C-alpha cells in the first residue's frame, strides 16, 4: 500500500531516507507519574518525542512501553489539556501507520485534529488533517481526502502545504480533473524547489509526469520524469519511481523500445530495494503497458499478475468494506485487476 511518503511526513524524515537511531525509553517510564497524579504537559511532550524517536528507528515496537503509559491519559486530557491530548492521539496514529493499520491511523489522526482544534492549535490541526487527507487518498476515498486536504490549506506550514497540494493533485486527477491536477502538482514542485527540498520536488515531478502522460503530452511528461530522476538519483526507490514515470512519458510518444528499457530498469530497482510502500503497483502497471506495446503479452500479464496480487493482499487487510471497495477502485488498482484470476 502506498503509505511510504505519508509515513515519512508523519515521522518528519525526508522521503526514502530510512530510519534513524532510537533512544531508550526506560528513564521516562521510571519518571512517569503515579496513578492519580496528573502528568505535566512537559512530561507528555517529552514522552511523545521519545516515542517518535523509536517510531523512526528499526525497532518501532520499543515505542509501545511509552504509548501504553500515554494512551489512557488521552480521554481526561481532552478537557484539561487538549493540546497534550492531541499529541498523545497523534503519536498513536503514527504508530498505527508504522504497523500498517491505515484504518486505525485515519480514526486517530481525525481525533488528534479535533483535539488540536479545541486547543486552538491551528498549525498542529492542519498537519493532522494533511496526513489524514493523504491517508484517505491512499485508499481512494476521494471525498474525505479532498475535504481533509482543503481544510489543511491556509493553516499548514509551507512545507506541509506543498504536500497537501500534491495530494490534491492526485485526488483531482483520479476524478478526471487533469488540468487542475496539473496546476496543483506544478505548484507543489515549485514550492518544494523554493525550499530546497529536492526529494519533495522529485516526487512532485513524478506525479506531474503521470498527469501529463495521461493527457497525451508525452514530451512534457518525459521532461518532468527526467528532472525527477535527477532529483531522486541518490535513492534507488526514488529512481524506480522516476523510471516508471519516464516509461509512461516515452510510451505516450510511441517510443516503445525506450519506454520498455526505462520500465524494466525501474522494475529491477524495485526488486532490489523493495520500495517502501510507495509506487509499486503503478510501476508494475507501467511495465505491463510497455511490455504489451512491445509485443510481449506474456510478460505484460506477468507484471499485471504481480500487481494484482499486491492490490488484493492490501485490500484484504482493510476491515471496512467501503474502504476496501474504494481501494479497489483506484485507477491503477483497477488496471491491475484486469488480469484474470
How does this structure look, described?
There is one protein chain. This protein is mainly alpha-helical and about 350 residues long. About 75% of the residues lie in helices and about 0% in strands. It is built from 19 helices and no strands. The chain has helices at about 5-10, 25-30, 40-55, 65-70, 75-80, 80-100, 100-120, 120-140, 140-150, 160-175, 180-195, 200-215, 220-230, 235-250, 255-275, 280-295, 295-315, 320-330, 330-335. Helix 9 runs antiparallel to helix 10 and helix 10 runs parallel beside helix 12. The longest helix has 20 residues, at about 295-315. It is elongated and about 70 Å long.
Please outline the helices and strands.
Blueprint: H1 4-11, H2 26-30, H3 41-55, H4 64-70, H5 74-80, H6 82-98, H7 102-119, H8 122-139, H9 142-152, H10 158-174, H11 178-194, H12 198-214, H13 218-231, H14 236-252, H15 256-273, H16 280-293, H17 297-316, H18 321-328, H19 331-336
Amino acid at each position: 500500500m502506498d503509505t511510504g511518503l505519508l509515513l515519512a511526513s508523519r515521522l518528519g524524515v525526508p522521503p526514502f531516507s530510512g530510519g534513524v537511531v532510537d533512544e531508550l525509553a526506560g528513564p521516562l517510564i521510571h519518571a512517569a507519574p503515579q496513578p492519580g497524579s496528573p502528568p505535566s504537559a512537559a512530561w507528555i511532550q517529552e514522552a511523545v518525542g521519545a516515542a517518535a524517536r523509536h517510531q523512526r528507528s528499526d525497532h518501532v515496537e520499543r515505542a509501545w512501553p511509552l504509548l501504553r503509559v500515554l494512551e489512557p491519559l488521552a480521554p481526561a486530557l481532552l478537557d484539561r489539556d487538549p493540546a497534550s491530548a492531541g499529541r498523545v492521539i497523534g503519536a498513536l496514529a503514527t504508530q498505527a501507520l508504522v504497523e500498517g493499520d491505515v484504518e486505525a491511523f485515519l480514526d486517530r489522526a481525525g481525533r488528534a485534529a479535533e483535539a488540536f482544534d479545541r486547543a486552538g492549535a491551528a498549525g498542529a490541526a492542519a498537519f493532522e488533517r494533511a496526513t489524514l487527507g493523504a491517508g484517505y487518498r491512499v485508499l481512494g476515498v476521494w471525498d474525505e481526502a479532498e475535504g481533509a486536504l482543503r481544510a489543511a490549506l491556509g493553516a499548514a506550514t509551507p512545507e506541509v502545504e506543498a504536500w497537501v497540494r500534491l495530494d490534491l493533485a492526485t485526488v483531482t486527477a483520479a476524478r478526471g480533473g487533469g488540468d487542475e491536477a496539473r496546476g496543483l502538482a506544478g505548484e507543489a514542485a515549485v514550492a518544494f524547489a523554493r525550499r530546497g527540498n529536492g526529494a519533495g520536488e522529485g516526487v512532485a515531478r513524478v506525479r506531474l509526469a503521470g498527469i501529463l502522460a495521461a493527457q497525451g503530452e508525452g514530451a512534457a511528461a518525459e521532461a518532468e520524469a527526467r528532472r525527477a530522476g535527477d532529483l531522486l538519483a541518490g535513492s534507488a526507490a526514488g529512481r524506480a519511481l522516476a523510471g516508471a514515470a519516464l516509461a509512461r512519458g516515452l510510451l505516450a510518444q510511441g517510443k516503445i523500445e525506450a519506454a520498455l528499457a526505462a520500465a524494466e530498469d525501474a522494475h529491477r530497482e524495485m526488486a532490489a530495494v523493495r520500495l517502501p510502500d510507495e509506487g509499486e503497483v503503478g510501476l508494475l502497471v507501467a511495465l505491463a503497458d510497455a511490455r504489451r506495446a512491445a509485443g510481449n503479452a506474456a510478460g505484460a500479464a506477468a507484471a499485471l499478475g504481480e500487481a494484482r496480487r499486491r492490490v488484493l493482499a492490501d485490500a484484504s487487510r482493510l476491515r471496512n468494506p467501503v474502504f476496501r471497495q474504494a481501494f479497489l477502485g483506484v485507477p491503477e488498482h483497477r488496471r491491475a485487476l484486469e488480469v484474470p484470476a
